[in-house]
Amino acid sequence: MKFIKLYISIILLLTFMPEGKGQDYKNAVRMSFGTYWSASYKRLFNQEDGAMAMLQYGENSLVIAGLRIFHQPAFPTTSSKWFISYGYGAHLAYRTKIKSSNFFRPFAPPIVHEGNFVSPGMDGYIGLEYRFLKYPFALSADYMPNFEFFGPGYFRMNLNNISVTAAFVF
């Protein structure tokens, strides 16, 4: 029954959304799966730069991020469907459990900090995007390392944020 409701909701959403464009788009609604589950909205100001707002949910954490994004053709001489995107931004994270590893003792078990932690941070972003020319969809692989301040260790690096993204573009 839940599958039927989800299917009907997706059909209604796609029916009443603005007409999609495959090649050049201004807006994208994105769903990412990987280290975190995330929903994001990307707005391109012109063909090369834009902004993205993101809500991530993962293991014991909720992250709200804003990114500045830049696009370039990945293989300009061979294909107009592949794009490299990169950028930077900031986030605010709420975590209830944090696992910390000592860089100088890589085989030691991680230290677990439990509690309520709110941490601001800085993000980096790089992605490889494939745009379908006939259909209003795009697929991408994204890597978003970030640094957090004021957590239980006062400084934390998250270098494992990898995701696969599907986007509806319009």
Question: How would you summarize what this structure contains?
Answer:
With 170 residues, the protein is mainly beta. It contains 1 helix and 10 strands; from the N terminus they run αββββββββββ.
Can you put this structure into words, describing what you see?
9% of the residues lie in helices and 60% in strands. The protein has 170 residues and is mainly beta. Strand 6 (111-131) and strand 7 (137-143) form a beta hairpin. The longest helix has 15 residues, at 2-16. The model is unreliable at 12-22 (pLDDT under 50). The chain has an eight-stranded antiparallel barrel with strand order 1-2-3-4-5-6-7-10. The two termini are 30 Å apart. The protein has a single domain, classed as Beta Barrel (Porin), CATH 2.40.160. The chain has one helix and ten strands, in the order H-E-E-E-E-E-E-E-E-E-E.
